[in-house]
Design brief:
565 residues, alpha/beta, Spore Coat Polysaccharide Biosynthesis Protein SpsA, Chain A, 8 strands
Length: 565
C-alpha cells in the first residue's frame, strides 16, 4: 500500500513539474549549460587535475574514432541502398499491387524455372546465380506483402498533395521545382499542388503565384494558391505557420472532393526542392504496403546538389556533409527524424493539428508531435531516393557565408525540442519508460555533440600542456597531443570515404566550368575543421545560448535562394 502511494505521489510530482513554467525554462537552459560546462571542463580541470583531462581526451578521441567508423559503414550502406532504389521500377511495383497474388505466382514460377536450369537443381555460378538470387529476393518481397494483403491500399485510390512553401523566392527558383514534379514517373493528374506563399513576401511573390497558377494549374489534378496572412496572433513568422494555414484550407478542399484522408499523402517542400522522378511512385508503394501507414513519416534523402558547382568551397563541404549525414542516419531507422522535405498521411496531419505554428524547426518538431500524438507508436521510414535542394548561395560571398551560418543556427535551434520532449515524457504514461527516455537521450546527445565535439577534438588536447606548468614537466603532457592526433588520423579513413562518394554523386559538370575544377572538389575537404567549428559548433552554441537566455526567434531566417546565370 505504501509503495502504491509512493508511486502515485511520484507521478503527481512529475505531472506537476511538467506544467510549471519555471521547470520548462530550466529545461531550455539545459542544452547550453551542458555544452558550455563540457567545453569549460578541460580548461578548469587542467588547472587542478590535468591527468583526468588527459584520460578524458584519449577516451573521447577513441569514442569519436569508433563513431567515425560506424558512420563510414552507415554512409556506404546508405549509398548502396540509394543506388539499388534508383534502379527499381517503382511504377511496375505499383501495378503488381493491383493483383498481388498473380504477381507472386509469376515470380514463383520464374524462380522454379531458374532453379531447374541448373545441374541437379542447383544454379550455375555467374550470371545465372545472380539472376536466381534476385528472383528469390523478389519472391520473398511479394510473400511479405501477401502476408498482410488485407491491409493493402490500391495505388489507384491514392491522392498526392505537394505543398511548396514560398516566401519571396524568384520565379526562376520556383519553375524548375514544378517541372521536376511534372517530370515524375507518376501521373500528375493524381497530384494536388499547393503553392503556400506569404503575404509578407510582397507584391512580387503574389504576382509570381498568379503567373505559376496560370501556367501550371491545368497540368495537375488540383492546384491551390494559398496566401498566408501576415500577423496572425499566436504564430511565429515561419514555414510551419505558412504550411499549417495551407493544410487547413487543403483539408476543406479535399473534404469537398470527397477524398478519404487516409488515402492522401502530403509532401512538404521548400521552393528550391526538386523531387527525383521516382520519388512519387516509390512513396506511393511504401505507403500502400505499410499496415501502420498513418503512424509513419516518410523521409527521402535530402541532396543539396542543385547548384553545388556554383557554391563557394566551404558551402560545398557543408552541403555535401548535410546530405551524407541523413544518408548515414537512414540505415538506423530508430534514429531518423523528419528533415526538410518529408511526407505524412493527411489523417496524421489532422491528428497532430498539422504542423507547429510556434517554432522555426517545424520539420524535426513534427516528429515529436506525432510521436506523442500516437503514444510513441511513430517511426520515420527512409525513402532512398533524392529530393534535390540548393546549397546556400547568395549574391556575394559575405551574404552567402552569413546565410549559411543563419541556416545552420536555425537548424541547431532544434535544441528547443529538448524541453518539449522532457515535459511530454513526464505527462505521457502510455509510452514505456525506456522507449521515451532513450529517444530523449539521442536527441540531447546529438545537440550536445554538435556544439562541443569539433572544439574538443581540435583544442582540448593542448589545454593541460599550456595551462598547467607542473603538468607541463611530465612526459604525458607532451605525448597527449601526439596520441590524440594519431587517433584522429585513423578517423580520416572515414573522410576519404566521404570524398570518394562525394565525387561519385556529383551532378554533371556545367559546361562553363573547366575540367580542372574537379581538383578543387577534392581539395575543398581540407576545410572540414574550419567549417565544423565556425558553421557547426559556433552556430549550435549560438542557438543554445539564445535559448538559455530566452532570446527566442521572432521569425524564420529565410535562406536566400539565388540563381547563378
Amino acid at each position: 500500500m505504501a509503495q502504491t502511494n509512493h508511486t502515485k505521489n511520484t507521478k503527481s510530482l512529475a505531472l506537476g513539474l511538467a506544467d510549471k513554467r519555471w521547470f520548462y525554462r530550466l529545461c531550455e537552459i539545459m542544452p547550453a549549460a551542458l555544452s558550455w560546462s563540457i567545453l569549460a571542463s578541460p580548461i578548469l580541470l587542467s588547472l587542478v587535475y590535468p591527468i583526468a583531462v588527459a584520460y578524458f581526451i584519449i577516451a573521447f578521441d577513441l569514442f569519436w574514432l569508433l563513431k567515425s567508423i560506424r558512420m563510414s559503414f552507415g554512409l556506404v550502406e546508405g549509398y548502396r541502398t540509394l543506388k539499388r532504389s534508383e534502379k527499381i521500377d517503382w511504377a511496375q511495383r505499383l501495378i503488381q499491387l493491383d493483383d498481388i497474388d498473380e504477381a507472386l505466382a509469376k515470380a514463383m514460377l520464374k524462380l522454379e524455372k531458374l532453379a531447374r536450369s541448373g545441374i541437379f537443381g542447383l544454379v550455375r555460378l555467374g550470371k545465372d546465380k545472380k539472376e536466381f538470387l534476385a528472383s528469390k529476393l523478389e519472391v520473398d518481397r511479394l510473400e511479405r506483402i501477401v502476408a498482410h494483403k488485407s491491409t493493402l491500399i490500391s495505388p489507384n485510390d491514392i491522392t498526392h498533395v505537394i505543398i511548396t512553401a514560398v516566401y519571396n523566392e524568384s520565379i526562376d527558383v520556383l519553375r524548375p521545382s514544378l517541372e521536376a514534379i511534372l517530370n515524375s514517373e507518376y501521373d500528375p493528374k493524381k497530384v494536388i499542388f499547393v503553392l503556400a506563399y506569404e503575404e509578407r513576401g510582397g507584391e512580387q511573390t503574389a504576382q509570381n503565384a498568379k503567373v505559376l497558377e496560370a501556367e501550371y494549374a491545368s497540368k495537375f489534378g488540383g492546384y491551390l494558391s494559398i496566401c498566408h496572412p501576415d500577423g496572425i496572433d499566436g504564430e511565429l513568422k515561419g514555414k510551419g505557420a505558412n504550411i499549417s494555414y495551407a493544410g487547413k484550407i487543403l483539408k476543406q478542399y479535399t473534404d469537398e472532393q470527397g477524398l478519404d484522408p487516409h488515402n492522401i499523402i502530403v509532401t512538404t517542400l521548400d521552393s528550391d526542392h526538386r523531387p527525383d522522378k521516382k520519388y512519387l511512385p516509390y512513396l506511393t508503394y511504401e505507403y500502400c504496403i505499410n499496415p501502420s501507414r498513418t503512424h509513419f513519416s516518410y523521409q527521402p534523402m535530402a541532396m543539396f546538389f542543385n547548384n553545388i558547382w556554383d557554391a563557394p568551397a566551404p558551402m560545398r563541404v557543408i552541403a555535401t556533409g548535410n546530405s551524407f549525414w541523413l544518408m548515414m542516419e537512414s540505415v538506423r531507422h530508430y534514429r531518423l527524424r523528419n528533415f526538410a522535405a518529408h511526407a505524412q498521411s493527411m489523417q496524421t496531419l489532422i491528428d497532430t493539428d498539422f504542423w507547429s505554428v510556434t517554432t522555426i524547426v517545424e520539420d524535426g518538431h513534427q516528429y515529436w508531435r506525432t510521436f506523442f500524438a500516437y503514444d510513441g507508436e511513430h517511426l520515420v521510414e527512409p525513402l532512398y531516393i533524392p529530393i534535390y535542394q540548393d546549397a546556400v548561395l547568395a549574391d556575394n560571398y559575405r551574404k552567402t557565408f552569413l546565410n549559411q551560418y543563419k541556416q545552420l543556427r536555425r537548424w541547431a535551434y532544434g535544441a528547443s525540442d529538448i524541453p518539449f520532449v522532457i515535459t511530454n515524457n513526464l505527462r505521457n504514461k502510455q509510452i514505456s519508460f525506456g522507449k521515451k527516455w532513450i529517444q530523449f537521450f539521442r536527441l540531447l546527445e546529438g545537440h550536445i555533440s554538435w556544439a562541443t565535439a569539433p572544439l574538443i577534438l581540435t583544442f582540448a588536447a593542448w589545454a593541460p600542456l599550456y595551462l598547467n606548468e607542473q603538468f607541463n614537466r611530465q612526459v604525458i603532457a607532451h605525448q597527449l597531443p601526439v596520441v590524440a592526433s594519431r587517433i584522429l588520423m585513423l578517423a580520416l579513413v572515414g573522410q576519404f570515404i566521404t570524398i570518394m562518394l562525394s565525387l561519385l554523386m556529383l551532378p554533371p559538370r556545367p559546361k562553363h566550368y573547366h575540367k580542372s575544377k574537379i581538383v578543387f572538389m577534392v581539395l575543398q575537404w581540407v576545410l572540414v575543421p574550419i567549417t565544423s567549428i565556425f558553421f557547426g559548433s559556433a552556430a549550435a552554441l549560438d542557438a543554445q545560448t539564445r535559448l538559455m537566455f530566452g532570446r527566442y526567434p521572432k521569425a524564420f531566417d529565410v535562406t536566400e535562394k539565388a540563381v547563378k546565370k
